[in-house]
Amino acid sequence: MSTTTLAPTTPTPSTRPVRERFAPLLQRIAEGAVAREQDHELPRAAVRELLDAGFGRLRLPVAEGGEGLDLVELAELLVDLATADSNLPQVFRGHVAWVEQVLSLPPGEHRDRWVERIVAGELVGNSWSEVGDGVTGEQQTVVTTREGRTSVTGRKYYTTGTIFADWTDATARRLLPDGSFEVVTVLVPVRAPGVEVSDDWDGFGQQLTGTGTLVLDDVEVDPADVAPFTDRFRYQTALYQLVLLAVHAGIAAAVERDTAQQVRARTRTYTHGLAPLVRHDAQVLSVAGEISATAFTARALVRAAAQAVQAAADTAGEPGTDRDRAANVEAEIRTAQAQVVLSEAVPRAATLLFNTLGASGTSRARDLDRHWRNARTVASHNPVIYKQRIVGDWSVNGTEPPFVWDIGTHASVARGAQAEGATR
């Protein structure tokens, strides 16, 4: 069985102590990545070790028990983690967003309670998506309050990280006094009665992210943990995308690492090659150089995108101002631009890896195909063809990007299906 080592990177001065502290843990995580993938072993131990080491509280202020990192510094660590195991930053994706939401809360008991939980190493997963015939813009999951008891009932899918978590950040609809509904977010305790989480995600990549089904059967929740969706911090979509960009950059770094290791180790060569040793073959080195350039570009794009998202975080206290709006547009566009590039470049680099090796490179024991599978799966989030159009419309016409979107059955299609059923 092969083992892996982390590709060297140069930390910025502000993050150097934190990154150096995590380096030994990330090395251990990297060494077990192939075995976990081959055995479909959820990285529960790695998640726990990361939380115990403080990975979940990196963004909290130092005075509140965190590391006080900004989003650029956090993104650097997420790339490091993705280089070790690309599943893990995605496991933490919902947690990263919830911590950001906690940072946006006003001072008070509710914020303090969540800061204490995060510092204590509690993890928050994500459960926004639903599958089936639900109409876009609506939620089939429902929050109700009866006789002083608030509960949530519904079924979610793509619940990344929830199977490892103490809490899950869910979306739902809540009945208002006038009979209408509003979309809300609700923090659900994963170990409460009525919660069932399944590891039934069947994608060919990112298989260990716990992106499966969540069933909620009249689960009691704290009313303080139910809030209108409109109360969320505005740059959340850009932040969610930033985490996926970091995953892509980490995969690219891992591809560069594994290419170098595999090429250096080869002693067999082809008679029509250009050198007695593959490591000296100019054609192979050219391919390795393209892979290395992609890894460098990916990390640089993550940093540039993170700077834009941090600028939006810096203006969060100025809602409604031109400065805040401009910062949020910038964050959305920069993360989309990076997504457009990396969604093509990183899977390509993961394919080029095999051009540097012989047929032995396809050995399942080496599991080198995981890089392409994982990169292609990440690239399938938030379809890149729509991001291309949105960026183009902004570039040509100055059109602002959408900040929130949804997926489901279009209302007109649902109405048509209902009408067709009524006439049968």
UniProtKB/TrEMBL annotation:
Gene Ontology cellular-component terms listed: cytoplasm
InterPro entries the record matches: Acyl-CoA_dehydrogenase (IPR050741), Acyl-CoA_DH_C (IPR013107), Acyl-CoA_Oxase/DH_mid-dom_sf (IPR046373), AcylCo_DH-like_C (IPR036250), AcylCoA_DH/ox_N (IPR013786), AcylCoA_DH/ox_N_sf (IPR037069), AcylCoA_DH/oxidase_NM_dom_sf (IPR009100)
Gene3D superfamilies tied to this protein: Acyl-CoA dehydrogenase/oxidase, N-terminal domain, Butyryl-CoA Dehydrogenase, subunit A, domain 2, Butyryl-CoA Dehydrogenase, subunit A, domain 3
Location of the Acyl-CoA dehydrogenase/oxidase N-terminal domain: 27-122
GO MF, one annotated term: flavin adenine dinucleotide binding
A biological-process GO annotation: fatty acid beta-oxidation using acyl-CoA dehydrogenase
Keywords associated with the record: Oxidoreductase
Domain Acyl-CoA dehydrogenase C-terminal: 244-382
Pfam families given in the database record: Acyl-CoA_dh_2, Acyl-CoA_dh_N
PANTHER family: FLAVIN-DEPENDENT MONOOXYGENASE, OXYGENASE SUBUNIT HSAA, MEDIUM-CHAIN SPECIFIC ACYL-COA DEHYDROGENASE, MITOCHONDRIAL-RELATED
Recorded family membership: Belongs to the HpaH/HsaA monooxygenase family.
The protein's name in its UniProt record: Alkylation response protein AidB-like acyl-CoA dehydrogenase
